[in-house]
Amino acid sequence: MLTLAEIRAVPKVLLHDHLDGGLRPQTVLELAGETGYRDLPGDNVEELTRRLTEGAHRGHLEVYLDAFRHTVAVMQTPDALRRVAAECAEDLAADGVVYAEVRFAPELHTERGLSLDQVVEAVLEGFARGSANAVRHGRGIKVYALLTAMRTAARSLEIAELAVRHRDHGVVGFDIAGAEAGWPPSRHLDAFQYLKRENFHITIHAGEAFGLPSIWEAVQWCGTERLGHGVRIVDDIEITSEGAVRLGRLAAYIRDRRIPLEMCPTSNVQTGAARSIAEHPIRILRQLQFRVTVNTDNRLMSQVTLSSEFRRLAEEFGYGWSDVEWLTINAMKSAFASFDERLHLINTVIKPGFATARALSDAVVPASMLGPRHTG
Fold first, then answer.
1. Where does the chain have alpha helices with state H?
2. Which residues are catalytic?
3. 296-311 pLDDT, tens per residue?
4. How far apart are alpha carbons 25 and 67 in whole angstroms?
5. pLDDT digits (tens, 9 = 90+) for 145-195
6. DSSP string, 320-349
7. What is the spatial distance between Cα 49 and Cα 326, in angstroms, rounded to a whole number?
8. Running DSSP on this structure, what letter comes out for residue 297?
9. What backbone torsions phi and psi does residue 195 show, to the nearest 5 degrees?
């Protein structure tokens, strides 16, 4: 069984992580004091953490999302955005993440007068600062930004244009997020058409709180390159009592076209997208060779790290190094970085890192295999 420490030591890749869902609780408290925000549900780290995470145990996406109003509220100044972004990069690097795409919605951070461009610039500065700090501590990491538009609002084209404007400075893609049911991705078709004309990358939250129609629209109408979560694609897979598997046309298309699924196991259980880790579709989808990736979603609200997510899968499904490496390379292949950068990380960082982990594991001799200990 892989240990958490062993998993933390190997190089990992993260494609689905929300900036406003990964703050350090102490930082939330300090930023609330600095910015005058007085509506926090707790005045110490323990109470605040409990209150911000309690929605994760209610089994519904909208309830889960309620805690974000507090983290977003303290992320309304350039200094706050830079600090949160820098700490994000540092925390991911400390967990062994070597490449990350972290998403945030610029439109949610303008309540105190910041322009959309100022929001993006502050976050990118924070990522650069945190990555540099991580390198100084012996942990290399590259963090890019994904700009998210809220699917319940009407600013998606504006955010898409913002993303393209910053494409050469650290923004690598565009996303839509928020309440899924009743807010189909096709409502934002003009934004996706613009992004296609600009040869820019797209990922869409789909198949988390709503089913196959959301996934179908994201893929066939909007041209998404990846699916944020995509858990409900399992609804298009039939498994007979004899164990035979039949893929529906949408599931077959997604597998055949190698469209990546940004799965977040713990979060998917907490929002009701999956009933338990044991019943999470990631197991059958991995067996059927879908392009599955493992992600955190919201590290604070879900109380996870990427290493802890892999550890849970190892405990539940018996995953070993080959499984973790396969999932990690899937993620790196699916990243929005350039082909050269992806290939470089796979060949010079990820594969050597897992080779070292295997060698260290093989070098450990179980105590039961040792003879009597001699002293003297």
1. 4-9, 25-35, 45-53, 61-65, 68-73, 78-94, 116-136, 156-165, 189-197, 212-216, 249-256, 265-270, 282-287, 299-302, 306-317, 321-334, 339-345, 351-363
2. 208
3. 999 999 999 999 999 9
4. 12
5. 999 999 999 999 999 999 999 999 999 999 999 887 788 999 999 999 999
6. -HHHHHHHHHHHHHH-SS-HHHHHHHIIII
7. 33
8. B
9. -65, -40
